[in-house]
């Protein structure tokens, strides 16, 4: 059962969303919180969420601070941003802060449930119309900071196989089937890949490879 924490200052929206998500048999809304309340950290600790949803658009100029507080309070939880507008700059900011997914509210509950399940497995999802912007921005950030030295050198051969599948846009189950391993094994390799590459999400790992730093090591 996946434990969810809903973070949004719009109380009516939170209640409606919670009711909808509760219809999924494998999801449990363990709590909700206002992003600006002083007890946010305490509520997170009580909920022990696997996934946190948050509406950053409503946070305005405090979006970065809200993300920082969420990451500090629940570093193991995947963060899903619920967006009420395109917000390209905010999407980039969210990705830099480690948010694994960006879901426009108009996509509906069924799509959100699918993304939440994926995020709980360490997968990432950003809309195609935003993904290019996010990847280019992260690439510029990495280049500006001097990049990494041989980022793929620390990966095992099997971890490279899993990473190659991620670059091709394959889901964990498909990678597992092609490598003749379990989905849980792929998830374990994925967590190890993120740790070794010092990135927060699969999106950043894929960006690192596509930037050309990693592919040179494999040739």
From TrEMBL:
<feature type="modified residue" description="4-aspartylphosphate">
    <location>
        <position position="55"/>
    </location>
</feature>
<dbReference type="InterPro" id="IPR016032">
    <property type="entry name" value="Sig_transdc_resp-reg_C-effctor"/>
</dbReference>
<feature type="domain" description="Response regulatory">
    <location>
        <begin position="3"/>
        <end position="120"/>
    </location>
</feature>
<feature type="domain" description="HTH luxR-type">
    <location>
        <begin position="148"/>
        <end position="213"/>
    </location>
</feature>
<dbReference type="Pfam" id="PF00196">
    <property type="entry name" value="GerE"/>
</dbReference>
<dbReference type="GO" id="GO:0006355">
    <property type="term" value="P:regulation of DNA-templated transcription"/>
</dbReference>
<dbReference type="GO" id="GO:0003677">
    <property type="term" value="F:DNA binding"/>
</dbReference>
<dbReference type="InterPro" id="IPR039420">
    <property type="entry name" value="WalR-like"/>
</dbReference>
<dbReference type="InterPro" id="IPR000792">
    <property type="entry name" value="Tscrpt_reg_LuxR_C"/>
</dbReference>
<protein>
    <submittedName>
        <fullName>DNA-binding response regulator</fullName>
    </submittedName>
</protein>
<keyword id="KW-0238">DNA-binding</keyword>
<dbReference type="InterPro" id="IPR001789">
    <property type="entry name" value="Sig_transdc_resp-reg_receiver"/>
</dbReference>
<dbReference type="InterPro" id="IPR011006">
    <property type="entry name" value="CheY-like_superfamily"/>
</dbReference>
<keyword id="KW-0597">Phosphoprotein</keyword>
<dbReference type="GO" id="GO:0000160">
    <property type="term" value="P:phosphorelay signal transduction system"/>
</dbReference>
